[in-house]
Amino acid sequence: MIDKDPSTSVRDRMNVQRAAEYLGLSQSTLNKMRGEGRGPRYVRLESRVFYRRSDLDEYVSRGVRETADSRSAAA
């Protein structure tokens, strides 16, 4: 069966190096985050790890905060 979901297309998949560059992180940071069970969702295919662009975008979006949130957190 062929997966027609565009979020799993080859173009959407990134290896650790590309995902780290996309997020502005080092590969070692991304690997450490994955090993600690935090960071963006990933896909493991046998021994290889991939990230979907949609999951990376979602991960970044979860970190977005409004300026008002920062002030209330400091209080």
Provide the low-confidence segments as ranges. Answer: none
> What is the count of structural domains?
1
Number of strands: 3
Mean of pLDDT: 84
Strand order of the largest sheet: 1-3-2
Radius of gyration using CA atoms only: 15 Å
Shape: globular
The CATH architecture assignment turns out to be: Orthogonal Bundle
Structural class: alpha+beta
Q: Which percent band covers the strand fraction?
A: 5-15%
Brief sketch in words of this structure:
This protein is α+β, with helices and mostly antiparallel strands and 75 residues long. 47% of the residues lie in helices and 13% in strands.
Provide structural commentary.
With about 80 residues, the protein is of the alpha+beta class. The protein has one domain (about 5-60): Arc Repressor Mutant, subunit A (Orthogonal Bundle). Helices cover about 45% and strands about 15% of the residues. The chain has helices at about 15-25, 25-35, 55-60, 65-75; strands spanning about 15, 45, 50. Strands 1-3-2 form a three-stranded antiparallel sheet. α1 (about 15-25) packs across α2. The longest helix has 10 residues, at about 55-60. The radius of gyration is 15 Å and the shape is globular. The relative contact order is 0.16.
